[in-house]
Amino acid sequence: MTGMTDLDGRFAGRVAIVTGGALGIGGGTARKLASQGASVLVADVNDEAADANVAGITANGGTARAIHTDVGSHDDIKTMIDTAVSNWGRLDILVQNAYDGGRRVQGSAIEVAEEDWDHGMGLLTKALYLGAKYSVPEMQKTGGGSIVNLASVHGFLMAPRKLVYEAGKAAVIGMTKQMAIDFGPLGIRVNCILPGHIVTEKSQTATWDRTPGGLEFFEQQYPVRRTGVPEDIANAISFLCSDDASFITGHPLAVDGGLTIQLQEDLGVALGKYARENEFEMPY
Ligand SMILES: NC(=O)c1ccc[n+]([C@@H]2O[C@H](COP(=O)([O-])OP(=O)(O)OC[C@H]3O[C@@H](n4cnc5c(N)ncnc54)[C@H](O)[C@@H]3O)[C@@H](O)[C@H]2O)c1
Fold first, then answer.
1. What is the mean pLDDT of residues 171-189?
2. What is the tens place of the pLDDT at every residue in 224-274?
3. Ramachandran region of residue 192, left (φ > 0), alpha (ψ -120 to 50) or beta?
4. N vs C: which end of the chain shows fewer Cβ within 10 Å?
5. pLDDT confidence band for 281 (50 / 70 / 90)
């Protein structure tokens, strides 16, 4: 993770919320936006990690606060928006990133339990609707704002036995386009990012990353011959939230090192062969 090297003031005087802003992509995004002058509310269930990220931001001269937020809770989302506004007087940016990957459920429609569907869809879709419901009226008061939702390459191309994640992320792309239409006239742009594989603090435990040689093999499937880091996504989010992107809305931006421009048949064969040779079950 890089420190604060670009205090360019792009977001000076602006207020941002990053859900899941303690670790991973959200952690990097909170640091990026703060480094560019935004006051950032780090909304996360992991209080310890959120406090640590805030401490790092403030030690580097940025402005941030943490708030305990479970995006599965309607009340928490409303309180999160209210807190940003009561602290800093306005809301300009909402990054809807939080997802409990640890509870990611594998399975087809005949395997997934109803409560896992409800839990997953609650975090992946309902949370984004509620975030917009309460943030848009606040953004409107100051003439506009920007919402960035985290989708995934999995919302664009489907993998087997991942009903909840794929359906949820596809819905994020649809919700983003729909909200962009409703809120464009209010000066509020809504975009989403489709990350490829991003190595985070947590992904040390993921199948590819912990299989010897797995990450290296995985990297070879990317045209740029590397997987991503949170800063790759944070940079794209910063751009989408900036005035440089003022004519961009409803856009699903793949930030995936070219993963999804490839012929999928070739890619699938290579990954399947590797999994068989290394005797592990494909992570999807
Ligand atoms: N890492 C990747 O390869 C990748 C790829 C595509 C899309 N994404 C998407 O990007 C987003 C972030 O992924 P990540 O890999 O950085 O995740 P991560 O697991 O590294 O971090 C997630 C953060 O969200 C927090 N969180 C989890 N559940 C929460 C909840 N209910 N309420 C509030 N905070 C909660 C966690 O405490 C953590 O700080 C997710 O939406 C994920 O689906 C990630």
1. 98
2. 999 999 999 999 999 999 999 999 999 999 999 999 999 888 787 887 888
3. beta
4. N
5. low
Token readout for 243 is 């005035």
Helix (H) or strand (E) holding 78: helix 74-88
Ligand 1 centroid distance, CA of 26 (Å): 7
CB atoms within 10 A of CB 251: 16
SS percent in the chain: helix, strand, coil, step 5: 50, 15, 35
Domains of the chain: 15-200+229-260 (3.40.50.720)
Place of tokens 């704002």: 145
Burial class (CB in 10 A: 0-12, 13-18, 19+), 104: middle
User: For residue 145, which phi and psi values (nearest 5 degrees)?
Assistant: 175, -170
Residues 177, 182, 184, 187, Cα dihedral to 10°: -130
User: Do the beta carbons of residue 67 and residue 79 sit within 8 Å?
Assistant: yes
Q: What average pLDDT does the structure give for the chain?
A: 92
Catalytic residue among 99, 134, 165, 274: 165
Q: Predicted confidence band at 2 (pLDDT cuts at 50, 70, 90)?
A: very low
